[in-house]
Amino acid sequence: MNVRAAVLSEMGLGGPYAETQPLEIRELSLDGPGPGELLLRVGAAGLCHSDLSVIDGSRPRVMPMALGHEAAGEVLEVGDGVSGFAAGDHVALAFVPVCGQCVPCLDGRPALCEPGAAANAAGTLLSGERRWGDGVHHHLGVSAFADHVVVSAASAVKVPDDLPFEIAALFGCAVLTGVGAVVNAARPRVGESVAVFGLGGVGLSAVLGAVVSGAGTIVAVDVVDSKLELARELGATHAIKAGEGVVDAVREATGGGAHHTIETVGSAAVLAQAYEATHRGGQTVTVGLPHPQQQLSIAAVSLVAEERVLRGSYLGSCVPARDIPRFVELHRAGRLPVEKLLTHRLSLDDVNAGFDRLASGEAVRQVVVF
Questions:
Q1: Are residues 88 and 185 in the same domain?
Q2: DSSP 149
Q3: Domain total of the chain
Q4: Model pTM score
Q5: How far apart are CA 352 and CA 261, in angstroms?
């Protein structure tokens, strides 16, 4: 079939993207689903900093690539050997296809799935195949900026049919990563303090995760005033403008440092600040993806003398088939109001302008609605 998709052919083009148009809306041929795969009609796809980091070249990927990795849609066709899915099912897509058989998967850490990581790096589906024509690669097994996609069934998780696609899409990345970083990686005890550095879709999801975990003091840090206001609306007890003196401000708000800090910016400098703002015996969790050349410098002795923990969390350290349904249920119960993260709805033709808003910090979560 023929599909309209946003294709990136060259990384590193500067902005404004509405003028330079790094994403070209093209008509591509799309093969049907192979064994273990699904054909989907995409309902909505979110714009994420992980997409932007491919566009600006800080997260290199094979080119050309049909971009986008946060999405929800409807199953149209089921490939051979697929069980648990049928035409008409609504699904959210996770950006790591889970093989279920490698060492990390068997250890309960599917975010680190080895075949999934290899396929994502190669720009293929989990099978090692590409279903796009014209030599175009898949983005993280999803390629969400397209009206139809073929994905591995291992990338899909069923969601309720009455959950709007533009909300369901957020559970595949922003909510999975941000809420998961708190409830799966940091695991604060009731009443402990949490500080979140960076208030994009992932960071604000982490604020929601801290609230639903029963954290006491919740500190939100960002440079954008509107995001600080939204963090307070979502449950943050303190909102601090990033910049000079931010570490001291977080320490003062939390009585000497947060028990848990979550860094979502993808900057080694911000991660160093988050580490400094963590209490003795506390934990710093990073979910941001800095440029591979960035290096982190910390006082090595603090890891032992202060019993500090510094850990990474990819995909929110989640098991998508377990965590997406439970996060959706929390949302339906009113405890994860993720709809408040959605600031813009746009068409596929406006996707480049959307990335201008994302780069400037104007938007929280924007969604292409098909």
A1: no
A2: E
A3: 2
A4: 0.96
A5: 32
User: Which tens digit of pLDDT belongs to each residue from 212-256?
Assistant: 999 999 999 999 999 999 999 999 999 999 999 999 999 999 999
Range of the domain at 186: 178-314
Count of CB atoms situated within 10 Å of the CB of 189? 11
> In the block, which residue shows the tokens 């506390």?
282
**Residues 330, 316: Cα–Cα separation, whole Å:** 16
pLDDT in tens, 43-93: 999 999 999 999 999 899 999 999 999 999 999 999 999 999 999 999 999
Q: Are 314 and 112 in contact (CB under 8 A)?
A: yes
Cβ-contact 145, 368 below 8 angstroms: yes
Both 136 and 183 in one domain: the answer is no
Classify the C-alpha dihedral 113-323-368-58 as positive or negative: negative
For residue 333, with 0-12 CB atoms within 10 Å meaning exposed, 13-18 middle and 19 or more buried, which class applies? exposed
The CATH number linked to 73 is 3.90.180.10
> Is beta strand 238-241 parallel, antiparallel or unpaired with respect to 23-29?
unpaired
State the Cα–Cα distance between residues 59 and 147, nearest whole angstrom: 25
In a domain, 227, yes or no: yes
- Give the angle subtended at the CA of 311 by the CAs of 49 and 358, to the nearest 5°: 10
Residues 6+ apart with CB under 8 A from 245: none
Average pLDDT over the chain reads: 97
Interhelix angle 225-234/201-212, nearest 10 degrees: 20
* pLDDT given for residue 185 in this prediction: 97
Q: Which of 73, 39, 34, 47 is nearest to 157 (CA)?
A: 73
Q: What is the CATH number of the domain that holds 286?
A: 3.40.50.720
pLDDT grade for 291, boundaries at 50, 70 and 90? confident
pLDDT of residue 342: 96
The least confident of 17-26, 220-229, 266-275, 290-299 is 290-299
Question: Quick one: tokens of 277?
Answer: 């703002």
CA quadruple 90, 106, 283, 221: dihedral, nearest 10: -20
Residues found in the chain = 370
Task: Return the pLDDT at 292.
Answer: 87
Judge if 138 and 263 occupy the same domain.
no
* Two tokens, residue 156: 């899909």
| Domain match, 251 and 354 both | no
* CA pair distance 182, 195, nearest whole angstrom: 10
